């Protein structure tokens, strides 16, 4: 267990907090502020407990240059609005300069300041010690609350912890609690649903989960590589040709581990990758040569639903069809609805499945939606995340 801000006396201390304010922007306007609102519990706790709060984040990919297209100014303005309180924002191209140091020094208990985009510094993504030290010198305590970048060893996510006592904020605490418990001590039956485009991206997750789950459901584009490995023809469906052998190996591993591996038994296919294309349902062994499978079919929905209904813990990562197109979203909607109705602990592993659940208005029916796509995948792969490993352990 990692220490959190509750384990520290933050009163009167300067606390530097790594947040994930990497929000989508259109013409300089924030189009979705969920990442900012998600960070508020930690920020409010620090304010209420008399800390002097210094926030930092990256935004986009300025590639180590002070490109004002990626300034955190809009984020600073939104934080002001949400907290209903003035905050200090100094748009320093070097992130930390004399003005910033003086402002940090002058902070009073309950004050909040935001640094400029940490990726304006090229040392940031290389975890350069000089930049880590500059950040650390501003404060007395480091708090990591950016789960979305916890799989990266950068100056602001991990390096700074070499020079300051480091603990987690509430967001990371929640992620570790839900993802960690699900993987290490799940209530059983434990079912994982994996979807998405390619097997290649998810091999390590599948391998790790095969050691933990009772049932593994595979849908989405990656199912076709498994069909191929089983000797079926898949028409023009997406194929990860380099990984057919690996899919065969995973099928074998599942059998050896006594894990029930469920693949779709029918598919909704089209003649082209187009929402307006003619569609038809085929059993998986009858996909014609010039059709591509773009969603699971009704029999598969029922098969998957029955397995999910039995579960006490479910992890879902990746849509089971091309849900962005309305004609191929039914499978993903069905999975989301079953999870929403389930009494099981339901965990959505970030990225596209999180977007799907939001889009269908079912987000508040899930136990936990991970805020980090890449980070949650690496967590489920069983990897150590540098932004979490660097935090102090509870005694
Ligand atoms: P990933 O980022 O690997 O989770 O993949 C998500 C993407 O997989 C989404 O954009 C889906 O449209 C896509 N996808 C799901 N099922 C299929 C399919 N049958 N064929 C092609 N792409 C798919």
Automatic annotation (TrEMBL):
InterPro entries associated with the record: Phosphoglycerate_kinase, Phosphoglycerate_kinase_CS, Phosphoglycerate_kinase_N, Phosphoglycerate_kinase_sf
Binding sites annotated in the UniProt record for ATP: 202, 293, 324, 350-353
Assembly and interaction partners: Monomer.
Protein's UniProt name: Phosphoglycerate kinase
Pathway annotation: Carbohydrate degradation; glycolysis; pyruvate from D-glyceraldehyde 3-phosphate: step 2/5
Gene Ontology molecular-function annotations: ADP binding; ATP binding; phosphoglycerate kinase activity
Organism: Clostridium aminobutyricum
Binding site for (2R)-3-phosphoglycerate: 35, 119, 152
Lineage: Bacteria, Bacillati, Bacillota, Clostridia, Eubacteriales
EC annotation from Swiss-Prot or TrEMBL: 2.7.2.3
Subcellular location: Cytoplasm
Catalysis performed (reactions): (2R)-3-phosphoglycerate + ATP = (2R)-3-phospho-glyceroyl phosphate + ADP
Keywords, comma-separated and alphabetical: ATP-binding, Cytoplasm, Glycolysis, Kinase, Nucleotide-binding, Transferase
